[in-house]
Amino acid sequence: MILSPSFIAGLSKKESFVTSPTLIAVCRGIVGGVSVVGFLAITSGLIDLTGSGENTSKLLIFGTFTTLFFTFLSRYLDQTKLSKSEGLLAITCGFVAGIFTSSLLYMLTGEMNSFQDSLFESTAAFTTTSLSILNVNTFGNGMLFFRSFSQLLGSFAAILSAVMFLPISDQQHDSTSSALELDRMFLQRRIAAIQNIALIHLASIAVVTLLLSFERMSFFNSLLMAVSAVSTGGFTVNSSFLTDPSVQWILMMGMIVAGTSFLTIWRLVTGRFTSAFRSSELHTYLLLIAISTVLFYLWTNNDSQSSLRQSLLFVSSAISTTGFHFLPFGNWTVAASFLLLLLIAIGPMSLSGGGGFQILRLRILFSVSIRELVRQLHPRAIVKIRVGKEIIADKNVRQVVVFQFLFLSIVFSTSLLLTLLGVSVYDAFVSAVNALATAGPIRGVDGAIIDIATFSSGERLALLPAMLSGRLYLLPVFVTLGYLLSESRNFLRPRRRYLRWKSSFKS
Predict the structure, then answer these.
(1) Cα 485 from chain centroid?
(2) What is the 3-state secondary structure (H, E, C) of 220-289?
(3) CA angle at residue 432 from 429 to 434, to 5 degrees?
């Protein structure tokens, strides 16, 4: 009998139907990603009641079904601890699953009719890439909330992957690699890291929301704008908000803080000001903002009193990879456009919400270049890689070099693909850099915004791998792919052995 007592007893024990570590990681990631999106859909449905309420039922039904169903499935997954590679696999699968689930929701609510377009919009939100093809003026409160908070989910997932790659342990840290490690007061365990970073995220959103509420903005709009600034997503609910000088100052503050390392912020809020301001990466970050602001001011050929504020606005938006759609001002030179593109590629501090190559990696590469030049003159010299007063371990240097190779490879391969699809060489290169750095919008030589909606579906889809890789900091994506490749080879190995034995037996 199918419904035998033993069968029922097996179900009551919640026995796992999946035992392979790889499949467990994949299933956990999918279940977690879909469940989180489902919970966000439920929350968005409740928020939609404050507006027109036209999508309330769809959001609530979709969110309730996905959350309950996938939560139920999670009870039958093996709860064994995952390794680092399996954890990265779970995060990547959860990220992709969340994107696909969100795409289905865009189509269900009728906001988009094409799956390709909804997939691009969902990816842009989760990867915090300020590239949108939607007209949000037709959105109700529920979908506006869902779209904005998708940015926050994507930003937090990226932080999870970064924390997974940090050399955190319960033991004493290696002093030779302390520049890339987090002090034990901040992160003794990865769970503590996630909790502390979540607190910083929420506190930053609360402060920016409160400040924007004082500028005659509704609490709802203030909240969504704050989420866009802190998550470095750059989505707006109304472009008219971006023209208010007071709002611009608040957003600048939010973007600069979003580009600051969580470790530095944690040291500041815990009263360790000396330790925080001693960071050489912070010095480079602030100096880069200051110099770039002056250069941008000079290269826009504008003498108005507001141009310096606007220069700082564009620079902070670019270096934090937020990408708010600010309208250009003055007469842009080619140098001004190139400067913004360079800042987008460099990105903010490490372990921040922004994308790009990031300043710490750039400083390490600079130190590596200096070391190799010194070795050309003194072959037997022992030169340590330093960032400030910190000595960087060789394993971390190798990781940065690999990151550089992957970064450039993705930029040029994406540019080549876009060019083959019919995009001009300049637009293809700028689009690839913006996609990989999870920034936007795409700007022409004169600073004018290139509407991503003018790209074909194929051209937009060509940007998706770069957007996804850039948001998950490249290495986790490639580690995941390598892990899956290794596991597939292990899976096929018994089959190959059988075929070789069979052929030898016949001979």
Answers:
(1) 24
(2) HHHHHHHHHHHCCCCCCCCHHHHHCHHHHHHHHHHHHHHCCCHHHHHHHHCCCHHHHHCCHHHHHHHHHH
(3) 110
What's the first-to-final CA gap in the chain, in angstroms?
Answer: 48
What's the pLDDT at 388? 73
3-state secondary structure of 128: coil
Tokens 């504020």 sit on residue = 309
Contact 309, 248 (CB under 8 A): yes
Q: Are 292 and 343 in contact (CB under 8 A)?
A: yes
Is residue 299 a contact partner of residue 333, using CB atoms and an 8 Å limit?
yes
Residue pair 442/131 in contact (Cβ under 8 Å)? The answer is yes
| pTM for the predicted model, two decimal places | 0.86
User: Residues 6 or more apart from 419 whose CB is under 8 A from it?
Assistant: 425, 428
Q: From CA 227, how far away is CA 171, in angstroms rounded?
A: 36
pLDDT band at 490 (very low <50, low <70, confident <90, very high): low
Enter the tokens of residue 220. Answer: 């709802």
Give residue for tokens 């400083």: 363
Evaluate the omega torsion of the peptide bond into residue 494 and state whether it is cis, within 30 degrees of 0: no
Pure H helices in 332-440: 334-346, 359-377, 394-420, 425-436
Asked if 320 and 232 touch (Cβ cutoff 8 Å), the reply is yes
Find, among 420, 447, 127, 421, the residue nearest to 430 by Cα. Answer: 447
Residue with tokens 């998708």: 150
CB 71 within 8 A of CB 35: yes
Q: Kindly state the average pLDDT of the residues 354-375.
A: 88
Nearest to 455 by CA among 407, 502, 418: 418
Average pLDDT rounded to a whole number, residues 112-136: 89
